[in-house]
Design brief:
6-stranded parallel β-sheet; single chain; alpha/beta; 7-stranded mixed β-sheet
Length: 474
């Protein structure tokens, strides 16, 4: 085997639906198309007893490419160590958003990782494979990587973004597609995820998407996207689509062209997506509804105008209210995302958000809450935390941190932004207001929330939260 691509097991692998790693699938197909033998191992769908060492030893790849996020970084490091234990001749590469923004830190502390791949990995991995397997070119000329040389860490110039996304293959034959359990929310129909574009022109303080890809927003053609949908229908018997773009509606013409292509091919499947309230109007939502959309997610984050301005959200509460009203009128299900503990947020700001949620309860089908702002690398929040001493001076993304709260409610393996005026006390009070009090408002509410629980582990987590909060209040 030339190349083994590995997706680490996430912290929530047994709690939530697992999506196929489409990024790795694309990289794998590009490598395969170039002439390399490739295998993808998704540990998300493997049991905890899976013997990674034995697996790597059996296929003995020349290169192991590892993906991962900030939440799964220590699992990614473990994979690299295991590969090197099998053979120190195996070349290890690490890519993804977390790797991109922590390259120097990672290479300084994780000796088992040889190369960091920045940003889009398709073309970079081809050049790395050509270099290590066929001895073609020079590592100094490979754009978009970091590595060690002569005891120093070298960061090569960035690679240009891929402009023609239609040139990338979308086949999923390298994945164990039968192992994924993705379902449409509310409808519980078998589904798969589709990405129609890359990049984000916005710059929310807590998100690294725009930094990762720049504000250059690239789209696939409608024909190419619907070709993939048709491929998934024919090969995997799906009954619905989850569009996994961070915001599907950034470009109105793009959405309308997708709707037209679906109609032209008589593809009538329910689908869901994420939107921004400043990128839709009633007419677009109507068109989406006619074209099969039954459910939209919208990031509100806060109902305090000062907070929205501080986090560079770029939306207004009037826009949020309008979109919720339109969705209700059009019978579109909605998931509204709110998060607490933003930069400079006060309890008064939180009270405004809680009041806003109460006013719009009947227009929100699913309420998504984030208690504590995660400090992700590359974000404005990370810079703020460093500048204000909210992270330890010796903080490293490659080592466990004291700032990671070991708490059943807040522990996610990533530091939380804990400020002098807004810490765990405020977060717990907020959680109590929304979770404990909100869930005992009525028997109907309790039953509805129990139906959403997808595993015994998640049930235990919910119960532990309720017990913990009840005890803390007494």
């Amino acid at each position: 085997m030339d190349i083994l691509l590995i997706n680490p097991k996430g912290l929530d692998a047994n709690t939530f639906d697992i999506m196929p790693p489409l990024g790795l699938a694309t990289i794998g197909c590009v490598l395969e198309k170039t002439g390399f033998s490739v295998c993808i191992l998704d540990l998300e769908v493997k049991s905890k007893k899976f013997d990674l060492y034995r697996y790597i030893k059996d296929i003995l790849p020349k290169i192991v490419g590892i993906s991962g996020t900030s939440r799964t970084r220590f699992e990614s490091f473990r994979i690299a160590r295991t590969a090197k234990q099998v053979s120190d001749k195996i070349v290890t590469g690490y890519g993804g958003c977390h790797a991109t923004f922590t390259a120097e830190d990672t290479l300084s502390h994780i000796r088992e990782i040889d190369y960091i791949v920045h940003g889009e990995g398709e073309l970079t991995m081809v050049e790395l494979a050509n270099f290590f397997i066929f001895n073609k070119g020079s590592v100094k000329d490979i754009k978009g990587i970091s590595y060690r040389m002569d005891g120093k860490i070298v960061r090569n110039p960035p690679r240009e973004r891929i402009q023609n996304l239609d040139s990338l293959p979308y086949s999923r034959h390298l994945l164990e597609m039968e192992a994924y359990n993705l379902k449409l929310d509310f409808l519980n129909l078998p589904a798969t995820s589709i990405m129609t574009a890359r990049g984000c022109p916005f710059n929310c303080s807590f998100c690294s998407a725009s930094v990762m890809f720049g504000t250059n927003y690239t789209m696939r053609s409608a024909k190419n996207v619907v070709d993939e949908i048709q491929y998934c229908i024919e090969n995997f018997k799906i009954k619905g689509i989850k569009f996994f773009d961070s915001t599907l509606t950034i470009n109105k013409a793009h959405v309308l062209s997708l709707l037209e292509e679906l109609k032209k091919r008589n593809i009538d499947l329910p689908w869901e997506c994420e939107i921004r309230v400043d990128t839709v109007d009633r007419s677009l939502l109507e068109a989406m509804k006619r074209g099969g959309c039954y459910y939209v997610g919208l990031g509100v984050e806060s109902a305090s105008e000062p907070v929205l301005k501080t986090i560079d959200k770029g939306i207004s509460l009037e826009q949020v209210s309008n979109v919720l009203k339109w969705c209700t009128e059009l019978d579109l299900e909605t998931k509204a995302f709110f998060s607490f503990g933003h930069i400079s947020e006060t309890w008064q700001d939180t009270e405004k958000t809680l009041a806003f949620i109460d006013r719009h309860r009947n227009e929100i089908s699913s309420l998504a809450k984030g208690y504590g702002i995660r400090i992700y690398p590359g974000t404005q929040v990370e810079r703020y935390a460093i500048e204000n001493g909210l992270l330890p001076k010796d903080f490293s993304w490659s080592r466990p941190s004291k700032n990671i709260v070991e708490d059943v409610v807040f522990n996610a393996g990533v530091p939380i932004l804990l400020q002098p005026s807004y810490g765990l006390k405020e977060l717990r009070s907020c959680l109590y207001r929304l979770e404990l009090k909100g869930n005992v408002d009525s028997i109907r509410s309790i039953i509805r929330n129990l139906r959403k629980i997808k595993s015994f582990r998640e049930l235990l987590l919910k119960l532990s939260i309720v017990v913990k909060l009840a005890v803390s209040k007494h």
